Amino acid sequence: MTNLIGACAEAAGEVYGPIAAAPPDQEGVAVETLSCLRVAMSGPLLLDLARSEDAARWPDAVAREEAASRRTYAARCVLAEAQDAVHQLGPDRGPVPLPTAGQGAMMDLVGAGDEVAACWRRDPQEAAALVLELTAGGELAVDEVLDAAVDAVVVCGLLALADARTAAAADPSTAAELCLAAVPHLALAVTLASADLD
Hints:
Elements: H1 2-21, H2 34-57, H3 59-86, H4 101-122, H5 124-135, H6 142-167, H7 172-194
Helix pairs in contact: 1-2, 1-7, 2-6, 3-4, 4-5, 4-6, 6-7
């Protein structure tokens, strides 16, 4: 992610640099948007590659996290099924089907990640306390909540890069601005990925 942050800044620099260096009375400035396009198109692939490299580098940690994830997923499914039983939701649940226990379990994790990411932007200490609160019942693990929070902010950064790709041909300044708009999301993802709450 840190390499992607640098690539975003470099791409924006290729647009803004010539504009800043041009004389004030010059009306048109030729700029390059190739770097904006390159970073926008390669961002998701770079992040997938980095995730694979991390899994190969730390296989024991990955195996431990996967085992914890299976346990917490099962616990969330049991909780969802119990809630269905309490509310007496049978197979005919109405015109809009409610999520299955498995889907509900995944939605709970995604929701926890979104909540932690939003809170971390305001107050990291409050967010750390929130993570511990969310994981106290055993249905969620600290690492998986932080990973879900990382995923949430990475998606925001990648969406900004996708918009930069769209804007590159028509408006280089907007493309550069969107490359820079991805940076705070990616920087927060680095912070969340590095957080140690154990």
